[in-house]
Amino acid sequence: MDILFSSADIDIRLMGYDDIPLICKADSDESEQNIAYLRKQLENQEKQECSALLALYNGEIAGYVFLYYKCRWGGLANCDLPCVIDLIVFAKYRENGIATALMNIAEEIAKMHSDKVYLDVCLNSEYGPAQRLYVKRGYVPDGKGVYYEEKVCGTNAICKNDDELTLCLVKEL
Predict the structure, then answer these.
(1) What's the rounded Cα separation, in Å, for the pair 64 and 120?
(2) CA proximity to 138, closest of 86, 102, 103, 91
(3) What pLDDT shows up at residue 139?
């Protein structure tokens, strides 16, 4: 596969089907559900709906991200905007610039489709580093408040602080 970005330690390229077992092993999740999820993303890449970007750190699989060109999920679903989905950097590779490299490439690709890109970030503390990264990169809330299961939470709405409680962030490219 062609390298989209290369530095001393980091290479970014498109993900392929042969990568799935290696990703699952690196992620310590070799479940059928995870394999099916990754396979679905690659099927969508084949349909030219998204780019599945894979990061290698010194030749080892370190993380990935998906960029959908006209996203059907999240806060701005079906608004014909690109969306970043599932930025993942495996724990032992964090703090090495991998998330930044993945986001740089995803945003460059997004520019070919729109002057904006969005993402939804979970609000629980497990996602604190991601929340900080996105703000530092210039992402701002869409102004609708928080979402639960992709619907805006009204004032005094009851929701659970799980992975479905998100904030939609947008960046001008």
Answers:
(1) 16
(2) 103
(3) 98
Domain annotation for the chain: domains and CATH numbers: 3-172 (3.40.630.30)
pLDDT per position as a tens digit, 125-143: 999 999 999 999 999 999 9
3-class DSSP state of 111? helix
Is residue 93 within 8 Å of residue 76, measured between CB atoms? no
Residues 6+ apart with CB under 8 A from 85: 50, 65, 66, 67, 68, 71, 73, 74, 119
pLDDT one-digit tens code per residue, 52-65: 999 999 999 999 99
Report the alpha-carbon angle 34-35-41, nearest 5. 90
Rounded CA-CA distance 135/167 in Å is 12
- Token pair recorded at residue 12: 């970014």
What is the layout of strands, in order, in the sheet containing 60-68? Answer: 3-6, 10-14, 50-57, 60-68, 83-89, 116-122, 165-172, 140-148, 151-152
